Every structure is written in structure tokens, then in C-alpha cells.
Amino acid sequence: xxxxxxxxxxxxxxxxxxxxxxxxxxxxxxxxxxxxxxxxxxxxxxxxxxxxxxxxxxxxxxxxxxxxxxxxxxxxxxxxxxxxxxxxxxxxxxxxxxxxxxxxxxxxxxxxxxxxxxxxxxxxxxxxxxxxxxxxxxxxxxxxxxxxxxxxxxxxxxxxxxxxxxxxxxxxxxxxxxxxxxxxxxxxxxxxxxxxxxxxxxxxxxxxxxxxxxxxxxxxxxxxxxxxxxxxxxxxxxxxxxxxxxxxxxxxxxxxxxxxxxxxxxxxxxxxxxxxxxxxxxxxxxxxxxxxxxxxxxxxxxxxxxxxxxxxxxxxxxxxxxxxxxxxxxxxxxxxxxxxxxxxxxxxxxxxxxxxxxxxxxxxxxxxx
Length: 369
Known about the structure:
Elements: H1 18-52, H2 60-79, H3 88-107, H4 110-127, H5 136-196, H6 201-209, H7 216-267, H8 272-314, H9 319-368
């Protein structure tokens, strides 16, 4: 999403009447009360989750941190005076974050929950904060900057939710691959044993393919062979799908890093020169995403070609030899998968450490303010 941080000069407008100010202040107060009620509901869900003591989910320590942060947010809302600021968009985003936080708690999406809490903290403590200036133009610019920062949080959270969905898909695919490879190896071993007990097998297979009559065991072998070939193709497709998902996950991680950089710069109100650099960075990243999509499409074309070649190869006289070599190839493939998973895990761990460091720094800055 491309954002416009350039501010247009607005035409002179008449000051609000006392009745208009009162109406806007009442609307702002009502939205604040609705947000506080939603935070109360979210906090009650958080407390119930902490009491469940589930393993492998969000830690009890982290849930306690969330609880204390929600308490601070509610306190901040109580301290805020009724304001005439136009916080409709900001309040809508805050409500969206609260709903997404409840979902993240249910699904134990740890990193997404951290990012949502950061977004909520900014929206309530800064986004709804009174602006102590009398210049309407300065007030407008400040509110636009606040909305822009919350849009950045929205993007980060959107990418984070995509990563959560991809993680679940990748885990299912890994389990499916392991299960299918195990079944494949069992059938393959059985196929080899059958081959040892069937002299003249290839000639009989050629006769079967020509439509001539052969023994039942040759037909059984041929049927099993086709089943092994189908499993081989299925495994290849699973591996390629998983690889495409991992590529998308990497792209979304990079997107979060880019948005986080732009968010930090927006929050520190850098000058126009730095902003232009940020826009160039965003354009560069968009091109990166397009390149990833093109690579995925090319991968699908290669997969289609591979399948055709594989089917032709398995129907040839060299089929048996290829099946024997497949066993060794799969051992090598599984080892590559293990090595790649280890490398990906180290990379993800580094990203999470950087993300946690950013969250801690951001929270410390807000506490100082």
C-alpha cells in the first residue's frame, strides 16, 4: 500500500461553534468509552487464557505483560479529556486491532500479538492524545501523521497474519511429506522384493503394454509400480508447494522489516529527504514482491514440465533402474530439507530477536514520553 505523507494546504475555514465543539467532544468521548469496554472484554479473555496453562502457546509471563499493558491503556483512556479531534479513523483501527488481538490469543500467534499490542499502545496513548496547539493547519498535519503511523502498523500486522497462516500450512505440508515419503519407501521396498522374484519382468511388462496376456503377478507389479509413480509425483508437488510457501513467508518477513523501518522514521518525524528515501525503499520492495511472484509462476511451469518428463521416463525400459536410484535421491532430498529447515530456523530466530528488541525499545520510548 502506498501512503501519501505530503500535506496540502487547506483553505481557511470558519471556527467551530460551541455547539459543534460539544457535539464532537461527546462523539469522541463515546468512542473512547466503547474502546475501553472492548479492552475490558479483551482483558477478561486474556485472563481466562492465562488460567488454562496450555503448553506451547503464549507464555504466562508474556500474557502478564499484555495484561499490565491493557491496564495502562485503560488508565490512559480514563485520563483523556473529551476532545474535538477527529479520531474516527484512528478509533476504527484501534477497534480492528482489539478484534485481531483476541484472534491472535486464540491461535497462539505470539509475534502477531506483540505487534498488535504495540499498535494498540500507540493508537491509544498517542493517536487519541490531545494536541496542544491553536493552529488548525498544524493540528491537521499532526492527525494525518498519526493516521499514517497507524496505517504502517496495519500493514505490519497484515503481513504478520499472513505469516501465521503460512506457518500452519508449512507445518501441515511437512507432516504430509514425511507421512507420504514413509509410505512411499514401504511400497518401494515391496516393489523391489517383487522384482527379485520375477525373472523376465521387463519383457512381461512390454507384453502387457502391448495388450498381450500376462500372469496376474505381472499385472499386480504393474499396478503397484503405477502407485509408486503417483506417490513420487505427489511428494514432488508437496515439496514444491512447501517451497513456494516458504518463499512467500520470507517475502512477508522482509515486508515487515521494511514497514518497521518506515514506521520508525515516521514516528521520529524525519525530514523530506529521508522520506523520499523511504519511498524509494518501498518501491524497491514492491519490485521484490513482483519478482517473487514471477519466480513462483516459473516454478509451476518447471513443475509441469518435470511431471511430463517423469511420466515418459517411468513408461520406458529404464523404469526399474530409475526406481532404484530414487531411493538414494530421496535420502539426499530429505537431508537437504533438514539442512534447509535448520538454516530457516536460525534466520527466523534472528528476525524474532530483532523484532523483540524493537518492541522493547518502542515500549521504553513510550514510557519515557
